[in-house]
């Protein structure tokens, strides 16, 4: 499925939900692309997972901001790859730094930069420990198996809508 078809399908899917996140945060390695940055050279031409670009463009078209939270120890390579892929400017925040905090520090920085509350964020990552830690912050978090794809997006939107409904129900008690 090409980028345009993925984008169309993602836009159709986004249209099915009444409640959407204000910000979607992605990990890089094994979430947006199928490799670890530190194992690659800046001279290489990187590639994204097949659905990643179409999903990013659909989110932007829908007015949903996107950000990066990566614990890569080689932020220079990651940023070079984002440039080469022509997607660097899409992200409202790029928190790419090595850390032992399981992405909580990354998400706190994104929150400070954007002002978007944690409960209004959706996060995709390939590591259990990051999903667990970030979920405790109130962020709807989705574990991806083999990169972000339309199925993972649908799952994320469903969980986000469900979490929003339950947090609204608690507020009206």
Automatic annotation (TrEMBL):
**Record SUPFAM superfamilies:** HAD-like
GO MF terms on file? acid phosphatase activity
The protein's matches in InterPro entries, at most eight in alphabetical order, are given as:
HAD-like_sf, HAD_sf, HAD_SF_ppase_IIIC, MDP-1_euk, MDP_1_eu_arc
At the top level of its lineage, which domain of life is listed? Answer: Eukaryota
- CDD domains from the UniProt entry: HAD_MDP-1_like
Pfam families in alphabetical order: Acid_PPase
Q: What name does UniProt use for this protein?
A: Magnesium-dependent phosphatase
Q: Organism source for this protein?
A: Musa troglodytarum (fe'i banana)
């Amino acid at each position: 499925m090409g980028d345009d078809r993925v984008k169309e399908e993602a836009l159709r899917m986004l249209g099915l939900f009444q409640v959407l996140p204000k910000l979607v945060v992605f990990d890089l390695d094994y979430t947006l692309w199928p490799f670890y940055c530190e194992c690659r050279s800046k001279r290489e031409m990187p590639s994204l997972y097949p659905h990643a670009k179409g999903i990013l463009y659909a989110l932007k078209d829908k007015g949903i901001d996107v950000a990066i939270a990566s614990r890569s120890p080689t932020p220079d390579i990651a940023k070079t790859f984002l440039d080469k892929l022509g997607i660097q400017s899409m992200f409202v925040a790029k928190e790419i730094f090595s850390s032992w905090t399981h992405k909580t520090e990354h998400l706190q920085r994104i929150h400070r930069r954007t002002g978007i509350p944690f409960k209004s964020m959706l996060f995709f990552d390939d590591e259990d420990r990051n999903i667990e830690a970030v979920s405790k912050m109130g962020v709807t978090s989705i574990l991806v198996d083999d990169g972000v794809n339309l199925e993972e997006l649908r799952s994320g939107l469903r969980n986000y809508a469900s979490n929003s409904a339950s947090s609204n129900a608690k507020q009206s008690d």
